[in-house]
């Protein structure tokens, strides 16, 4: 039993390290994107600025609010409060889904205004669309892991009398979480901070 706990502890530490590596790598990728954006803008030519639709402000609020709910879910998970964990994960999922929805609506508004991806003589549009799409793609992947975590939380709620299931879903060992809200929170907060950075960067540099 002791060896199992030690294995789990080491495994979780490895997962956290991997997540930090992912965050650093992704930060470097987006730093490259924004640097390329500035270089291309400085090149002039057909570059023409445009206004970012107001709907992106809504998506910004949504992803920040979803981070609050996920943080609450993580705190509840550490305290083994199953209902609060499931509730927090549920609202994070809903808000994250709406974030992606409003991103798509924003892209549609830009397309209607003549800012599109393919064969666009104005390179500002494709740069904006590619950067925001890749960010949204990361968020969509995060949503998949949130769905898995939410179903684990629901199973935990439905089988509260099963010691076997409880032992698989959670543990009382400090620092060990079977529902990895620690990794989800780290990833999700990063996505929120990254979006806020991208939103202000793009807003200021598209004027």
Q: Could you describe the 3D structure shown?
A:
With 207 residues, this protein is mainly α. 79% of the residues lie in helices and 0% in strands. The chain has helices at residues 2-42, 55-78, 82-112, 124-158, 163-169, 181-205. Helix 3 packs antiparallel against helix 4. The longest helix has 41 residues, at 2-42. The chain is elongated, with a radius of gyration of 20 Å. Residues 1-7 have low confidence and may be disordered.
Provide tags for this entry:
mainly alpha; disordered N terminus; 79% helix
Q: Mean pLDDT across all residues, rounded?
A: 86
* Main beta sheet strand tally, sense and closure: none
By helix and strand content, what is the structural category? mainly alpha
* Individual helix count: 6
Envelope shape: elongated
